[in-house]
Structure formats: structure tokens, C-alpha cells
Amino acid sequence: MIYFYATLIAVGYGGLHFVSRFGSRYDFKVSPDGVQYLAAGQGRHVPLPYNLRWMAPRLFRDRLLLWCLASWVSMAVLGPLAAWYFEGDWAIKLFAAALVVGLPGIVRINIAMPVLSDSTAIAAMLAGAACFKRGYFWVGLGLAGLSATFREAAPIFMALAAWSPWPLAGLAAVLLRYLQVRRWTDAEHVPAMFSEKGAEAVATKRLHGLDGNKGIWFRGAVMLMPWGICLLAVLNPSWQLGLSLLAGYGQLIPASDKVRLYQWAFPAVVAAVLPSVSKKWMLAAVLFHWWHPWNVYSF
Is the pLDDT of residue 282 over 70? Predict the structure, then answer.
């Protein structure tokens, strides 16, 4: 029953956000990254790193309904996956699931912008990490390879979440794909809908994040506050937490996105929060975490 309730938490929070944002009309955005995925789904060549993320465009093509369904399902299963991944009794597991689905860079952005490979990659990453922790080695190894086809960094975060080097074997799928596409000329295959600044960065292989994130690295409202109650993780520092945050925030160097990138570190962050919140305060913590004023994914 605990996994049923964890699913209800994920679906309930996602549904509340959906209704509060869209009402009766689902008017979602296709981000610049989404344009690349749709172009790949049409069989066009796209530049790095999008051409490494071939599985979602191969499965969903340029059909918006399939992208939406994949995003919704992936976000719905995050609840039970979190309950399976985190250790503790039923209250701690449900609390952890509520913290995960309440992170704006994990669920909310994938509802607002479903044409992204993040949702499926995050679900595969967390499922693989849970498999490694629970002793399902070969299933975890398969998920490591699968997650790499959705997003090339997923095996790294799976290794950090499982605290095991074995998921890094999934990077072999990234290498094989890179060897296949490395001869594609990036400058010739930037979709026309891509922004002029973004196209230039992709074509010249600049570290776009250094330009796009200039001046915000020390702005707490952008770089810290979207974590919500998960900021309590600082009370329980560890190597796993530190390396996960380093990997998460390190993604902001080549890319100009923010919250949806650094919150990939959520497994270690949420795990560090759990010992700091007593059961009598869990409900209040979840309500704050879900509705605090910095619960946004775009600045």
C-alpha cells in the first residue's frame, strides 16, 4: 500500500500544479531544447549534446501527445520509485516521495515543458539506483545503459545515488553513440526555430552556461531557495552529498538552464534531509516545500 500512496502523492501534486497553472486548457511550452528533440524525432540531424539523447526522439517522434504522456507517466512513477529508493518506515518513505515530487526542477518543469528527455531519464536513473541498492544488479546495469540513451549524464547521477561505480558502465552507450554521430557538422544542423544566441553557442561549442548564468552564481533565490525544505541537507554533510551537488551545479557551466539541472542531485539531498525532520513536523515541512514562494523552475 505504501507504493500506492506514494503514487497518489506524485499524481496529486502534479495534478494540483497542472490545474493551478493551466486550468482546463493544457497550453504547454516547447523549449529550445524541445525544438531539438522534435527535429530529431523528424529524422533530422541535431548537434551535440542532443544527438546523444536519441531514445526519446526515436520513441516519441514529433508527436506531442506521446511526449506529454511519457512525461506524465515518468513523473507519476517518481513517487513509488522514491519510496522504494529511500530507507525508513512508511512515514519516512512517503515524506521522501513528497520532497522529491515537490522539487520544481524535477516535476513542475516537466509538466510545463513535456518535450524534454529529462522526465524519462530521471525515472530511469532513480529506478536504476534503487535496483543497485536493493541487490538487483543486472536490472540496475540495464537501466544504467537505458538512462544514458535519454540523457548522457544519467549514469553519473545514478552512480552517485547508488553510491556505486557500476552504473558508470552505462556511459559506454554514450561513447558508442558519440562515435556514431561525431562526424555530423553541428553548424549545419541547428534547427531554424532555435534561438540565434543558442544556435551560435551550439555551433561554436562555447560553454553557453558561462555566458547565460553570468552574475547569478551567488544569487540565493536562484541557486539555493528552489530546494525548499531540502536546504536542511546541509545539516548532514557527506561525500555523497558533496559530490552529487558538485555534479548537479557543474552542469550549469556548459548549459544555461539552472534549477532543472542542479536538482538532478536530489537523491543525496533528500536522503540528507530525512534525519533532520521529526515525524510530527513532516506534514508542515511538505506543505512549505510544495508552496514556498521560491518553488519555481525559471528565473
Answer: yes
**Residue 298, amino acid:** S
Judge residue 246's burial from the number of C-beta atoms within 10 Å of its C-beta, 0-12 exposed, 13-18 middle, 19 or more buried: exposed
Around 298, how many Cα atoms within 13 Å sit in the side-chain half-sphere? 8
Q: For 162-181, how does the pLDDT look when each residue is reduced to its tens digit (9 = 90+)?
A: 999 999 999 999 999 998 88
**11: helix, coil or strand?**
helix
Quick check: 32 and 124 in contact, CB under 8 A? Answer: no
Measured in residues, the chain has a length of: 299
169 burial type by CB count under 10 A (0-12 exposed, 13-18 middle, 19+ buried): middle
C-alpha cell at 171: 556511459
**What's the distance, Cα to Cα, between the start and end of the chain in Å?**
38
Cell numbers at 27, concatenated: 497550453
Q: What are 159's three cell numbers?
A: 552512480
The domain spans of the chain are 2-291
Contacts of 274 (CB under 8 A, 6+ apart): 86, 88, 92, 95, 96
Q: For the whole model, what pTM was predicted?
A: 0.89
Residue type, 48: L
Q: How far is CA 295 from CA 112, 125, 228, 260, in A?
A: 14, 23, 7, 12
Fill in the amino acid letter for 89.
D
Residue whose cell numbers read 562526424: 183
The radius of gyration of the chain's CA atoms, rounded to the nearest angstrom, is 18
Q: How far apart are CA 22 and CA 16, in angstroms?
A: 10
Task: Report how far residue 137's alpha carbon sits from residue 127's, in angstroms, rounded to the nearest whole number.
Answer: 12
- Per-residue model confidence as pLDDT tens digits over 204-221: 445 555 666 666 777 788
Q: What is the dihedral of CA 230, 98, 78, 170, to 10 degrees?
A: 20
* Residue 214 to residue 237: CA distance in whole angstroms: 28
